[in-house]
């Protein structure tokens, strides 16, 4: 993992203990610039809800762990490239 990759990620405050994790390598007006929504829990852990990469949510004991996971997920997404969406099976129209 390249160290400069972490510097492309930035936490934008949303509240006292809530942030948006954004990728500065993507235009700000592009929805994919938001990588995750992050919240600090009462336990001190950080919970990330992945938005443009990955699925679901994950908890981290430190922000460093969160940033490293985000960098890895971004690298995986870039290596896969754009994926063709799965086709929707055709169904004949219902007859009245």
Q: Any overview of this molecule?
A:
By secondary structure, the protein is of the alpha+beta class. The chain has one domain (3-78). It is 23% helix and 30% strand. The protein is built from two helices and five strands, in the order H-E-E-E-E-E-H. The protein has helices spanning 3-6, 63-80, and strands at residues 9-15, 18-23, 34-40, 46-50, 57-60. A five-stranded antiparallel sheet has the order 1-2-3-4-5, with helices on one face. Strand 3 and strand 4 (46-50) form a beta hairpin. The longest helix is centred in the last third of the chain and has 18 residues, at 63-80. The chain is elongated and about 55 Å long. The N and C termini lie far apart (59 Å). The mean pLDDT is 83.
Note the main attributes of this structure.
96 residues, five-stranded antiparallel β-sheet, 2 helices
